[in-house]
């Protein structure tokens, strides 16, 4: 039932096409009564959705539209005995409309996945007891307890305790952020370690997450300039054709001396040859072929409008984490104190890190194991939230964590200032301290994808300005920007900041694309002319984006732009050809140089030609 309801318009269109074939067969067998009845069924089934839409839209906007024109053309051709031609006009128009509806329905998804990340209840601390209450019942100033692994329910400030918080949903930062007393906390982010008590500072309706939702909905509700232009053109086109049709019903009789039969006949021919089937087919087949081409290449386009917009994009903004980079911390440097046994030191470190679920600890553990070293087992470990780990191996005590935790002066002095050097490269450094001082330093970094630099270069050669928008700190952003070769970068961007930067780019370049993968990128994806999401991104990023790169292959962006530009060339060829044919047929009809069958052949022939030209988009060599 769900499938039938979702695809009813497409099913009706296909069924009407089958009825047309049946009616034509009955007509050739001289069963005229049955054929007319079958044609009427084809008219009703195929044209119902478009007729209903056209009439309601006309009443709502108080303007005639192409749907009304097509219905009149089909009815007019039937009145003068050309049932097949009228039915085919309805079928072609209804099929294109059904396919367009089907495509658009796939791109209109609710942002329920984002809503699900907002906790519905929280642990309210009241009179020394914790009580589970709905978010709506909380008020600013309330104390809320957040347990390890739970999502922070509202925006607020840390009141008691310390922890590491995964803020990737808000900032896009791949690495957890340490939180201490009075530090800001955001709804929807995850408390990774240590129970904390926070004080609520904003109503639930004003949280950062709610702002993200509002920004997405606001951006999606705005009509694109192309859509507005098409609507204006459609209205004017229909008015001109219908005005000309009305004049043709009586003016030639008085001005040119035509008899009434000829006048009415020529007016009906005008409706047929002026109907915009070829004009409509100029765009849809080429668009669908381009969408199919993209799908085979790992690119999902959510509609023809986005292909059109992509062809004129002059600037692209990139998120960093998970887009230009892999989105996972990797060990880039592993330095052990001189004189220490490397194998034993790494075995101890791997054993300690194996006891933590922190992303950095996991990356270090996996790196050591990949070297064939077996971690020490059954170690006594103590997790120090927001700082690192304490461990005891025999009589030896170990500290593993950030410089301040192990003794910042020792960390800075290790290996002649190695910390400063690695930090300037945009790397996060974890230290290991034993009874004798700093044992080891491990540098981690979210590394740039292999294809990133070549993709940026190709886009820049196409005349496209590339900029990176990231929630990372300026030092890290500068390093990544240099490695990727982007024209510019802006660091420490929250979701609203990315939207503001996109608006500035839109003012300067008019057509701007945004590429991202996280929840924090969703508002910017919706604000951009074209939003491009990585296939491994979050649900809300995939739902908000106009284009999805299924294989996380950035090189597909350049391919998408070439594909869209080729499609635009074909569409322009088709529009020029179809409009030229319509004008030629209208002029020929006025001079009585064509009959209705010839007009239909010219009209349908031009439709077939533009469809075939559009299908050239299926060619993978762009």
UniProtKB/TrEMBL annotation:
P-type ATPase A domain boundaries:
116-217
Q: Which CDD domains match?
A: P-type_ATPase_HM_ZosA_PfeT-like
Tree of life domain: Bacteria
Question: Keywords assigned by UniProt?
Answer: ATP-binding, Cell membrane, Ion transport, Magnesium, Membrane, Metal-binding, Nucleotide-binding, Phosphoprotein, Translocase, Transmembrane, Transmembrane helix, Transport
Location(s), subcellular: Cell membrane; Membrane
For membrane topology, the record states: Multi-pass membrane protein
In Pfam terms, one family for this protein is Hydrolase
Q: What is its main location?
A: membrane
What sections of the protein cross the membrane? 7-26, 32-51, 63-82, 237-256, 268-291, 575-594
Record's family?
Answer: Belongs to the cation transport ATPase (P-type) (TC 3.A.3) family. Type IB subfamily.
Q: What is this protein's record name?
A: Cd2+/Zn2+-exporting ATPase
State the organism of origin. Planomicrobium stackebrandtii
């Amino acid at each position: 039932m769900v499938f039938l309801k979702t695809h009813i318009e497409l099913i009706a269109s296909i069924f009407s096409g089958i009825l047309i074939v049946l009616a034509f067969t009955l007509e050739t067998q001289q069963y005229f009564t049955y054929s007319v009845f079958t044609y009427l069924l084809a008219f009703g089934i195929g044209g119902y959705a478009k007729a209903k839409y056209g009439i309601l839209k006309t009443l709502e906007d108080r303007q005639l539209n192409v749907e009304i024109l097509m219905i009149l053309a089909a009815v007019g051709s039937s009145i003068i005995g050309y049932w097949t031609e009228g039915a085919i006009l309805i079928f072609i128009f209804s099929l294109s409309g059904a396919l367009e509806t089907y495509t658009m329905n796939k791109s209109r998804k609710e942002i329920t996945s984002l809503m699900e990340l907002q906790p519905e209840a929280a642990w309210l601390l009241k009179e020394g007891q914790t009580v589970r209450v709905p978010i709506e019942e909380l008020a600013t100033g309330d104390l809320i307890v957040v347990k390890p692994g739970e999502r922070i329910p509202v925006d607020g400030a840390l009141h008691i305790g310390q922890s590491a918080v995964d803020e990737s949903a808000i900032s896009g930062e791949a690495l957890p952020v340490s939180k201490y007393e009075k530090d800001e906390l955001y709804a929807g982010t995850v408390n990774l370690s240590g129970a904390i008590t926070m004080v609520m500072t904003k109503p639930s309706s004003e949280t950062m997450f709610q702002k993200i939702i509002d920004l997405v909905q606001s951006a999606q509700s705005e009509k694109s300039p192309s859509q507005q232009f098409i609507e204006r053109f459609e209205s004017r086109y229909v008015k001109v054709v219908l005005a000309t049709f009305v004049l043709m019903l009586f003016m030639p009789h008085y001005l040119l001396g035509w008899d009434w039969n000829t006048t009415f006949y020529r007016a009906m021919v005008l409706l047929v040859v002026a109907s915009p089937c070829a004009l409509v087919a100029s765009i849809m087949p080429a668009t669908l072929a381009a969408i199919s081409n993209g799908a085979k290449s790992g690119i999902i386009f959510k509609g023809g409008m986005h292909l059109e917009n992509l062809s004129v994009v002059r600037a692209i903004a990139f998120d960093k984490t998970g887009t230009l980079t892999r989105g996972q911390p990797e060990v880039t440097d592993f330095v052990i104190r001189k004189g220490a046994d490397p194998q034993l030191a790494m075995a101890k470190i791997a054993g300690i890190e194996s006891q933590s679920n922190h992303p950095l600890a996991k990356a270090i553990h996996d790196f050591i194991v990949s070297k064939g070293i077996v971690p020490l087992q059954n170690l006594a470990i103590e997790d120090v939230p927001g700082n690192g780990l304490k461990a005891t191996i025999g009589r030896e005590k170990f500290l593993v964590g950030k410089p301040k935790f192990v003794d910042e002066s020792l960390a800075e002095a290790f290996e002649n200032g190695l910390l400063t050097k690695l930090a300037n490269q945009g790397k996060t450094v974890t230290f290991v301290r034993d009874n004798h001082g700093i044992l080891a330093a491990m540098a981690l970094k979210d590394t740039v994808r292999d294809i990133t630099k070549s993709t940026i270069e190709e886009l820049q050669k196409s005349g496209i300005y590339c900029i990176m928008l990231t929630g990372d700190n300026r030092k890290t952003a500068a390093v990544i920007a240099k490695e990727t070769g982007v024209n510019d970068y802006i660091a420490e961007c929250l979701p609203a900041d990315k939207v503001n930067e996109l608006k500035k780019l839109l003012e300067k370049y008019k057509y701007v694309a945004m590429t991202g993968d996280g929840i924090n990128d969703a508002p910017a994806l919706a604000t951009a002319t074209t939003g491009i999401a990585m296939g491994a991104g979050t649900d809300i990023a995939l739902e908000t984006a106009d284009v999805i790169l299924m294989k996380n292959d950035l090189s597909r962006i350049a391919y998408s732009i070439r594909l869209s530009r080729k499609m635009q060339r074909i569409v322009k060829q088709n529009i020029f050809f179809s409009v030229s044919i319509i004008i030629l047929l209208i002029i020929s009809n006025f001079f009585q140089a064509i009959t209705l069958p010839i007009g239909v052949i010219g009209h349908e022939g031009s439709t077939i030609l533009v469809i075939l030209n559009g299908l050239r988009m299926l060619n993978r060599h762009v």
